[in-house]
Model the fold of this input.
Amino acid sequence: MASSLLKSVLILIALLGTGSALAQPRLAVIVHPDLDRKDVSFMELRRIMRMETQYWRPGETISLILPGPSAPERAPLLDRVYQMSEQAFRQHWIAVAYRAQTLSLPRPYSDCSVAVRIVANLKHAMTVVDAACIGEERVRVLRVDGKLPKDEGYRL
Amino acid sequence: MTRLFLIVAWFAVPHMALSQDLTGLIEDLEAKTQFGLFSDFQAEFNDADRNAELYNGHLVGHLTTKLSRRATYFAEVSLSPDQKGSGQASLERAFFQFSFSDPFRLVLGRIHTPVSRWNSRYHHGQYLQTSINRPQVVTYGNQMVPIHSIVAEVSGTLARETGALSYMAGFGVSEDHGHEPNEEESAAEHSKNPSAYAGLTIEPASVLGLAFGGVAYVEHFDHMQHDEGTDSVVEYESILSGFVQVDRFRWALMAELLSVSHYGKQWYAGSWGYYVQAEHQLWGRMERAVVYGRYGTVLKNLEDPMFASDDCERWGGLTGGLRINVAPRVAATTEFRMYGEGLSFEKRHVYVQISAAF
Done:
């Protein structure tokens, strides 16, 4: 009796786990279609996201747009790219400003469709959104370590 | 004003929904000025004289203004209470920065001398450093490290698939050499001495969060430093430092070693110090809590005229603490510190602090 109850609980936990995994958005890294980039390595992406890399090339500053606190992309982005807690993430940006590390801090979005529209209109902008959010906008999805969001083994 | 509000709001109000107006957001990408403030309040208890003291810590403000597509101006001002209880204002940093690309950046102005990783990363940003106290080897007033410099510095980062290599090199004059000025010190100790430094940091891609590197620093004393009663003279100082840092999801490790030598008629080596600090963010309901511990030691060559007035040759200290991030930009920390000559640890202090960033 006890073991069957335990089995049921484990199955339920497994199902809930699968459900929450499915609910996590698959993130896409998007840039303006005229930008001369098609892929990015995970390490380079991480450096851009932390604003340790700030230029596409000399003179071309990356305008970074990030999911704000209410955006559903925020938690998976912190988990998969920054590998930071929410607290550490906030502290990171305070430190970036204090160390005068950047010319301008990233801007937040709460609705991914707005972020997609900005990237479609701003040549050096880059953001990470739910892949399902891209729609008809003219943006380029960057490959990460050679893979697109639909590919097996994609890291985001 | 609206732009400024948007900038502050993103950091200050965590769940605030920002404007979804596309035009506004694009304009906001061109935001010109950022402001920040740090403040702290501290209580200290020690078992030697059963004494308790309260400190209203620093109030530190900094701003970055974008002057053009490539140029920014940064200034940091610190207000701190002095021994007499009145306030003391100081210009901590003020520099122009010209950014041309990731591999090349030029800084002109007054900076925190980057001879120590801790000195350049945290300095007066009390909220940013997990512990309440700085490691002894980089404590203000220990004469081991210069605190400020007025420099021309070039720096940059070369990133490849295998990792990133950052460099910096600068020359200028050193100020506030490891101690706060007081009336009894000689003019020589306050002089602005020519100095130069160069450093490298390596971040291999194969180990996420790992960084290590070092800095070499040399300073020439315009006014030679004499040890009274002897003919010892010091003309040059050199500092070599190295660090290793690992920053992972819930834990961080930081270790730093500094070696200080002086040259004149003789070579005075053998003064050095290091610290190792580990910290870990807890899980689940305790996620806001970070526990940390640090061991540090400082060894000074008392034959060195620069350290001859010190009465302690070797110093060791253990620090442990708990930091709780009580709100998005507020932390409450309690710290226990035991230290003393050699490994005696005869002095014991408990600190409680509230620190905040605005």
Remarks:
- Chain A touches chain B at residues 41, 43-44, 47, 52-55, 57-59, 61, 63, 65, 68-70, 83-85, 87-88, 90-91, 93-95, 97-100, 103-105, 107-111, 114, 117-118, 121-122, 125 (CB under 8 Å).
- Residues 70 and 154 of chain A are 25 Å apart (CA to CA).
- Helices of chain A lie at 2-23, 42-49, 74-82, 86-98, 112-121.
